[in-house]
């Protein structure tokens, strides 16, 4: 079941985070997050669990374009041409987070429009782009359009990010 179809709650997001932690422990992996519209929610869900520091490297909250550039190395040209909510930007965010984290084996990046404002015909409220990067693999991006209010969209985005990490680690 995808996050779009899922009935979710804070508990389901936490359960997904716990599955990510368990999988990382199985493979001796580490995760790092690069978040925009979720504002650190995915990292907060991962670090909800005691002992999560054994597989959670950290997280970057890069809400502004300047932070995406300065902290994660997203090129200004990418942001100007494609915008912050795009495959190109989240791919660079995922690569930047992984490069900045010595122990991380997988990263996930999230950038979207959680609303209630800020949407457009081309990029509606609920549009969220994701990317995962692995030290020994390609960067993969994914797009979802979630529904509901701001809180719902952010929670669905965190849940989907965990599903993508689990797919990359399967």
From TrEMBL:
Gene3D superfamilies: CinA-like (3.90.950.20)
InterPro entries per UniProt: CinA-like_C (IPR036653), CinA_C (IPR008136)
SUPFAM superfamilies: CinA-like
Residue ranges of domain CinA C-terminal in the record: 16-168
Protein name: CinA family protein
The organism of origin for this protein: Acetobacter oryzoeni
